[in-house]
Amino acid sequence: MLSLLGIFLGYRGVMMTSAAEFSEEDFERISPFNVRSLWLLRQIKYIIESYHVDSGIKEISDDDLLHGAAKGMVEAWKDPYTRFVAPQRLKDEEIELEGKYGGLGMYIGERDGQVLIIAPMEDSPAEKAGLKAKDHIVKVNDEVVIGWNSDQVVQKLRGEAGTSVKITIRREGEEELLDFTVTREIIKLKSVRYEMLSDDIGYLRLTQFKHNTDVEAYDALKDLIGKGAKALILDLRNNGGGLLDVSVKIASMFLRSGLVVETRGKTERANEKYYVENSNYLTAMPMNILINGGSASASEIVAGALNDRNRAKLIGEKSFGKGSVQTLFPLTDGSGVYVTIAKYYTPSGKVIDHVGLSPDIGVPGEVNRDKFKDDQLQRAIQEIKKIINPVASSNLNINKNSNSNIKKGRVKKF
After folding, report:
1. Is 54 a catalytic site residue?
2. Which entry of 132, 210, 249, 322 is annotated as an active-site residue?
3. 297 labelled catalytic
4. Active site residue 322
């Protein structure tokens, strides 16, 4: 029997009962921890409130303490994507998915205990400042954030539009740390951009998979077909992902039938197979897909499905490798917990998480606004021309080699 039960539970006003009416078995059936663990938490709270130098000056609510304990419990699983989210933060994230919020405009993740930039969003303050995919965040406003999780770093980076934040990063290939000052803006997320690259090659760029991205992409592709596109470059570089159902709809634009992606997890609910949505099908035109280290999650689903089904070659650099499924479980006080319930598998059974997708044609480089200086895009165009006009491409290669020899002869001669 528990002699201290009335003291502990009565303190929070949760339950007033006598020890005689409540057994230890009853208590452990409704409590997440045994009584000794709860008493340890009670001791910690008492010690801090009694001895901390700021106790009595700094106000810490019981809700903040409870959320802190919940966050610590979740972090003990050491999965950066399984996380507890306090009520206000959860509201902020819902706003982000709707496509408008204040911030820097970049995807952030964790790998090997470090917080890194998965990808800056197109036309965002982060991209304009020069931040790049795979940059490791070391300091924010000169405060070292090594050892912090991604949610803590995000909170530090957030602020009112018009204010600035200093970010110190470590970049591969650079010996010294790099500093960037970025001005926060209201981010209006535009996820679809398209154009005709030539009379017969269309270009469709998706920067994320948010609400309505599938509708906008569908309309864009119809417009490209109407303008005479006979082949397509689908650009998923620096696309940090988004909504699973949207990625399935995007893949369905290019596949008549079959599996798009499979999830496998611990529970029956987590084991799902997502098939093509036939009503979304638009075209069988030849296509290539551009990927890089900033292509993650939903963009890897689309690229993996189309590549596995022999609909497209992957060109560029290896993708990020974020292939897990998180489900939000809302809690009674407005907070929530995101839990990794499954991992993604491509139609051929390849796992994405922590592995990524390797390109069929590796081309180093970065996204460049000047398409003529974008090596990856130019290689994708070159490869697609081989499909839609193989004879002309062959002649072009012969002519290039011929001109090259003539020029070399002239140089040597003079």
Report:
1. no
2. 322
3. yes
4. yes
Could you give the C-alpha distances from 78 to 50, 111, 116, 149, 378, in angstroms and in order?
Answer: 31, 11, 16, 10, 41
Distance between CA atoms of residues 174 and 62, nearest Å: 45
Report, as ranges of residue numbers, the positions in the chain whose pLDDT lies below 70.
1-28, 95-102, 391-414
Query: E-strand spans in 121-242?
Result: 136-140, 143-144, 164-170, 178-183, 185-188, 192-196, 201-206, 231-235
CB atoms within 10 A of CB 130: 12
Distant-in-sequence contacts of 191-199, Cβ < 8 A, 24+ apart? 191/99, 191/216, 191/242, 192/216, 192/217, 192/220, 193/122, 194/220, 194/221, 194/223, 194/224, 196/224, 196/227, 196/228, 196/229, 197/233, 197/371, 197/381, 198/381, 199/228
| Residue 366, phi then psi, degrees to nearest 5 | -130, 160
> How do residues 356-411 score in pLDDT, each as one tens digit?
999 999 999 988 889 999 999 999 999 999 999 875 554 444 344 433 332 333 23
Q: Considering the entire predicted model, what is its pTM? A: 0.70
